[in-house]
Design brief:
Order of helices and strands: HEEEEEEHHH
GO molecular function: DNA binding
Number of helices: 4
CATH class: Mainly Beta
CATH topology: Metal Binding Protein, Guanine Nucleotide Exchange Factor, Chain A
Helix content: 10-25%
Largest sheet: 6 strands, antiparallel
Strand content: 25-35%
Number of strands: 6
InterPro entries: NAC-dom, NAC_dom_sf
Radius of gyration: 21 Å
CATH architecture: Beta Complex
Shape: globular
Protein name: NAC domain-containing protein
Number of domains: 1
Keywords: DNA-binding, Nucleus, Transcription, Transcription regulation
Strand order of the largest sheet: 1-2-6-5-4-3
């Protein structure tokens, strides 16, 4: 933990928890435990545009993790986060323990904003609650603090330009598999030329 409150991972370390782990070990702990792990910081989204998250959120690669208060309006100074109508359940040991929503950042004022490549997954604990059997022993567990249960855990990241043209499905792809590498136009040109040369060679008579 740095003096500014930010967390920098040591070289070679990658923070890449599953959806189940984000709910049970981080968001669930924040709601149930008075002294929860503070590796993920609390941020006010209304004061930050997505490109300002680096250095303030817990960042791992192009993914930025943070807690924020649950709000209907996700507006910032330069735009707003818009839900795209996708809601996925998160299951642990055959029990629904939470869900996540997908939002996209739009520049300007709603509803005439311009969509960007910034995507956010917003993690929620089930409002009906769930048993802690899947989290281990129930001994010493507390009821959720109502003020703490208003928190959500967010993971924000910027999609590649090529991915943003694939439609709704690109938001729901497993972004953890994104290696962050992308062919340049020069590489694509070289690969196309190589393919043409190979076709010409294979089509020549023996």
């Amino acid at each position: 933990m740095m003096a500014c409150g930010c967390v920098n991972l040591p070289p070679g370390f990658c923070f890449s928890p599953t959806d189940e782990e984000l709910i049970l070990h981080f968001l669930h702990s924040k709601a149930y435990l008075p002294c929860h792990p503070n590796i993920i910081p609390d941020l006010d989204l209304s004061h930050l545009d997505p490109w300002e998250l680096n250095g303030k959120a817990l960042s791992s690669g192009n993914q930025h993790y943070f807690f924020t208060k649950m709000k209907e309006n996700r507006s910032t100074e330069n735009g707003y986060w818009k839900e795209i109508g996708v809601k996925e359940p998160i299951v642990s040991a055959s029990e629904k323990v939470g869900f996540k929503k997908y939002l996209v950042f739009n520049l300007g004022e709603a509803p005439q904003g311009i969509e960007t490549n910034w995507v956010m997954q917003e993690y929620h604990i089930c409002s009906s609650g769930f048993s802690t059997a899947s989290c281990g022993s129930t001994r010493g567990r507390r009821k959720p603090d109502k003020s703490r249960s208003k928190w959500v855990l967010c993971k924000a990241y910027e999609k590649k330009s090529s991915q943003s043209q694939q439609g709704l499905n690109c938001y729901c792809n497993d972004d953890e598999n994104d290696s962050g590498t992308e062919l340049s136009w020069l590489d694509e040109f070289y690969m196309t030329t190589l393919d043409d040369d190979l076709e010409e060679v294979t089509s020549m008579p023996n």
